[in-house]
């Protein structure tokens, strides 16, 4: 009942927001197209505004391409809706100020509407560039533990791929190429590899692209909240296993003297009867003198991980808000919503993710991959964050 009530409230809010947006657009179109059929307009507009939800409705096999089309259209509309929610109240405010000032407004609708649409086009083009053009961020970190070599351990990390109807094989091939170019010892996929439904992942054989990832000591993944939403975890883990990628579900693997720990996503606490293990229980019996790298998709519990002896914690989930000004919200929801943090001796890195949820649009956020260079012999006294070739020392 609680979920149904929440869904009803969400639909009501979306309906009111879209009526507000639709009314503004109708005023502009009627100024451009006098005599426009208003009933036909509202029918088309409401179908588009709810197309993402329509695209998620299970359909017969023959109609699934139509559902995918609705989901793609709806994804882009979500970006337009967020832009409109920010810009239209500002436009209305300006209109009110001009009315109070006694300014003539005969051309306001056309001029303001054209300005907003031009800004929307700039927003979509710039946001698309940020979503598809990837930054490789390098973090060189010292861990006061040894694996018997002075050569840094290279770990390639990607989170939030969201592979599905929007992010597909083309973007995935770029990721594989970039990660293999790092010549990694270990590859880690920190959750939300899928964009909920496994169907496009299977249909487009995306696992064959992931199979091309090369690492000396293995490729490992964890579950994110979207794998849980999709409900195909058993099938997903088996497909990943078939291409040599182990999905760690509250499991620990030792490889080349390093522990790789994979937690179940926090969503398991609500969607699985057994929930998930605590960090301390997960690490029980491990040799804490060895380096411990842990993936936990949602960036929470840094203090607990630090006290348990984790050396490096890797998360994603936030997308750094994906579209500004959402990053103001994620910054307040999480102790660290993006970037690097030193918590006692724990190095925390939260990625903004490689793919996108919903629209392939990013503003104040970038598609990114992480390259870790872990110095494990005590020879370094600082770490470096490198972005697009620019290095900055970070005292640790």
TrEMBL record:
The keyword Protein biosynthesis does not apply. It holds the Pfam family Metallophos. Residues 154-320 form the Calcineurin-like phosphoesterase domain. Keywords: Membrane, Transmembrane, Transmembrane helix. The keyword GTP-binding does not apply. Gene3D superfamilies: 3.60.21.10. It comes from the Bacteria. The chain crosses the membrane at residues 38-57, 69-88, 94-127. This is Metallophosphoesterase. It comes from Paenibacillus rhizoplanae.
